[in-house]
Design brief:
Residues 70-75 form the Serine/threonine specific protein phosphatases domain. GO terms for molecular function: bis(5'-nucleosyl)-tetraphosphatase (symmetrical) activity; phosphatase activity. The protein is 27% helix and 17% strand. It is built from seven helices and ten strands. The strands form two sheets. It has a six-stranded mixed beta sheet with strand order 1-5-6-7-9-8, with helices on one face. A four-stranded mixed beta sheet has the order 4-3-2-10, with no helix packed on it. Helix 1 (23-32) links the parallel strand 2 and strand 3.
Length: 218
């Protein structure tokens, strides 16, 4: 469920919001940032697939040494659909692209979706002046500790915390300095206490948010 990343192995570390098949948009964003695939690391908050046009290309990022991701609810829906042959929920939420692939592409995509079972739900990066936690939807406890048990479904699906935050009833999560989440499309990055919501709706025509951890001003 958890994965630690040693920041000392990378020149710069970036976190990107929900991709949803926006592969070309990601590459353009990385080029503008001068991203170096031999020295820099990109961390995804999950939801690599569905709704966009380049889903297979986004899944293939999982094979790159400079890329890692937490599992999002769209990866979870795809995994569940392919393991049970009940594709209704996935297809209703953007999974139709899979049916439009040719046989070879479909086998390739299915293998990469199966690989998503090995993705962590939570990524932990301890840096000199900050301790960063990345999850798709939420860290569903009020105090963070590496390795403690949490409900996987809440980690990939829950909007309870952001809803409380938006109503002015939120609070910090203790145990780390920064928490980065995606899952909920927003017009802009929202910052509540030590929680940052960075799905800015790229697949719906919004911006694709890219945050450089090694250059955070806070």
């Amino acid at each position: 469920m958890y994965r630690k990343i040693d920041p000392n192995g990378w020149r710069r570390i970036f976190i990107v919001g929900d991709l949803h098949g926006c592969y070309d948009l990601l590459l353009a964003k990385l080029a503008r940032q001068g991203f170096d695939r031999s020295a820099d690391l990109l961390i995804s908050v999950g939801d690599l697939i569905d709704r966009g046009a380049q889903n297979l290309q986004c899944l293939e990022l999982l094979e790159q040494s400079w890329f890692c991701a937490v599992r999002g609810n769209h990866e979870q829906m795809a995994m569940d659909a392919l393991s049970s042959s009940d594709e209704g929920l996935w297809l209703a939420n953007g999974g139709q692209w899979f049916l439009r692939l040719d046989d070879e592409q479909r086998r390739r995509a299915a293998a990469l979706i199966e690989r998503c079972a090995g993705l962590p739900l939570i990524i932990d990066i301890e840096m000199p002046r900050r301790h960063v936690v990345v999850a798709h939807a939420d860290y569903p406890l009020d105090s963070y500790r590496y390795g403690q048990a949490v409900d996987p479904e809440l980690v990939v699906w829950s909007r309870q915390r952001i809803n409380r935050n938006q109503r002015g009833r939120g609070a910090p999560i203790t145990g780390a300095s920064h928490f980065f989440f995606g899952h909920t499309p927003l017009e802009r990055v929202r910052h509540f206490y030590n929680q940052f919501y960075i799905d800015t709706g790229a697949v719906f025509g919004g911006a694709l948010t890219l945050v450089e951890l090694t250059a955070l001003p806070f």
